Amino acid sequence: MTLSSANIGAAPNTPLRLSNIFRLARRHPLVLIGGGLLLLLIILALAAPFYAGDPRSMDPFVRLQPPSAEHWLGTDNLGRDVFARTVYGARISLMVGLVSALLATCAGLLIGVVAGYVRRVDNVIMRVMDALMSTPTILLAIALISLTGPGIAILIVAVTLPQMPSVARLVRSVVLSVRERPYVEAAVCGGARLPKVLWRHILPSTVPPLMVQSAIVCADAIMTEAGLSFLGVGVPPEIPSWGNMISSSRVYLASAPLTIFAPGIFLAVTVLAVNLLGDGLRDLFDPRAKRRR
Fold first, then answer.
1. DSSP letters of 12-25?
2. Mean pLDDT per 10-residue section of the chain, whose length is 293 residues
3. In a domain? residue 251
4. What is the span of the domain harbouring residue 266?
5. N or C: which terminus of the chain carries fewer CB neighbours within 10 A?
6. pTM for this predicted structure
7. 58 lies in a domain?
8. CATH code at 244?
């Protein structure tokens, strides 16, 4: 899923009415499918204490048991309920993905606006962003976590930092395109102050591409968190996460396949839902992209 730079500078100042968004969403089923799946996963994660058992409760007498009425997806090598750990693991992945996407979007928006509008600092800021982009995400995250130790907060920071450059470069390209348009030049010549120019004439143009890019960042963040937890440098082992569940159960694939398939399927469905939502938002805000496909 990519965002064409040719479509970045879409219509600048068109208000997005809620009724129009719902009407357009009905014409783009990807938005409904992706958004519906993501909303269902969020509800399952938030409501886990009401229908799932304790994900940390261990019973060595029921190790690696098949699915039953008491344990819907069986148990793992320590006798913990796989279903409970899977739905509680959704909390970690969704929280890291959504919070990282929000932080990366806000930070990238600020950096991109400054770089695109204040040309004197553009070169310096973009070289810093290039340096971050040139560093592999996993290696940068491992380096940060190794300095402070594992934890959810540092994991979110480690996942957010590599995602900022892509958002910043996207916003910068929008700002560079929009700032040269006649209505922006007219506002500047008319004596409008910089905050007003940014708020009324430039920032609205960044909203559609930012929504699409946020979905891409969220999917990447979820996969990065799972990879780091699989390697043992993500969340602490006692906290259920899809990545550390797959890691700890990979040697029991033959005897208890659900211990790997359950978190793996949930991970795949979550990333698929976010990507479908991103594709749908791209078609919603830029119908030409759908026609080209």
1. SS----HHHHHHHH
2. 41 48 67 88 92 86 86 87 92 91 92 85 87 82 81 86 90 83 68 69 81 89 90 83 90 87 94 88 64 49
3. yes
4. 26-52+81-292
5. C
6. 0.82
7. no
8. 1.10.3720.10
